[in-house]
Amino acid sequence: MKPAYEHVEFGDHCSVRVYHRRLPRIPFEWHHHPEYELTLTLNSQGKRYIGDSIGEYHANDLVLVPPDLPHTWASNRSIDPSAQQVAIVIWFQGEWARRLADCCPEYAALRKLLRRAACGLAFDASASALVQSRLDRLLSDDARRRLAAALDILCDLADAPGDPLASPSSFRQEDRGPTGHEPERFARVLATIETRFAEALRVSDLCDAANVSERSLSRYFEHHIGESVGRYIARIRIGHACRLLSNTVLPVSVIAARSGFPNVANFNRQFKALRKMTPSQFRAQFPRGARQDEAVPELTQRPRSLEHASAPKPARSRAPKPASPSGSAARVRSASALKTRAAAQKPR
């Protein structure tokens, strides 16, 4: 389904927005917004959707979501049935955090946090406990106390253990370019991957784009991205496929072709290896009836594995058959033939 846009109100003279939400259940509300969002969920367990990452969450869940990455939590039961579920949310703008890091060295850690959160970040139990220990200040009626508590939490989370959630470029806006922290030549590599992932990309193509050797490119990916070039491209493709699976009614075969996979079998295998479920199972996680971005197309897209197949042999021309006689003439000739045979068989 297509994510809804959420407008976040910060209030007058406030740099961050802190929201304390209590409710008996957390409904599925697939949405996005241009702000970063840090969410602590208490007394709740259910399913967490962050981009193309779908997983179970349990008590004291702490997640940082980057701008415009669709997300939602969904839970029908509290851990303690006698108490309500609680969500404590901090919203802040990325540009504000970057300016603060530039002018105040004490907050330089904010840049690191934003980089780590590019795909969403799920923190461990120790980070969740750290946030809970500061809730009194974070939920204060005094705006300056709230701001100081939020900044302390964000800076401490910059080095806290956490796991990335969504695939790179999952649901990413088309006009968003490199983040600016990569060296220029490798930013060109990332841009090339994002614009040409649906093609049969080779490592040599990426080396040409950045004018670097294959060894240098591989070393950069392993050191700065934490995985090989091939796996990064696969995750880009899977992220794009997940967006199409949740937003459209396109057949899986068409989605595979549009996402750069040579055939459906290869797509299914790589998708299951990364997302731990098949494409059809992933699509079934989202409510039906809202996938209307694209109508089902004619199945004219062919996988790359068929592009070099031999052309079909031209059909051999055959001499046209003589036209069959009209019905009335045929009946007359048939009647005459019967009379002739009857006369020949008449006894003399």
User: How many domains in all?
Assistant: 2
Instruction: Indicate the low-confidence ranges by residue numbers.
Output: 173-181, 293-315, 324-332, 344-348
> Outline, from the CA principal axes?
globular
Alpha-carbon distance between the two ends: 91 Å
Can you count the helices? 13
Largest sheet data: 6 strands, antiparallel
Would you mind describing this structure in some detail?
- It is a single chain.
- With 348 residues, the chain is an alpha+beta fold.
- It folds into two domains: 4-164, Sandwich (Jelly Rolls); 184-296, Arc Repressor Mutant, subunit A (Orthogonal Bundle), CATH 1.10.10.60.
- Helices cover 41% and strands 16% of the residues.
- It is built from 13 helices and eleven strands.
- The protein has helices at 94-103, 109-116, 125-132, 135-138, 143-157, 184-196, 203-210, 214-225, 229-247, 252-258, 264-275, 279-284, 327-345; strands at 4-5, 17-23, 31-32, 36-42, 44-50, 53-57, 61-65, 71-78, 85-92, 121-123, 162-164.
- Strands 2-9-4-7-10-11 form a six-stranded antiparallel beta sheet. Strands 6-5-8 form a three-stranded antiparallel beta sheet, with no helix packed on it. Strands 1-3 form a two-stranded parallel ribbon.
- It is globular, with a radius of gyration of 31 Å.
- The termini are far apart.
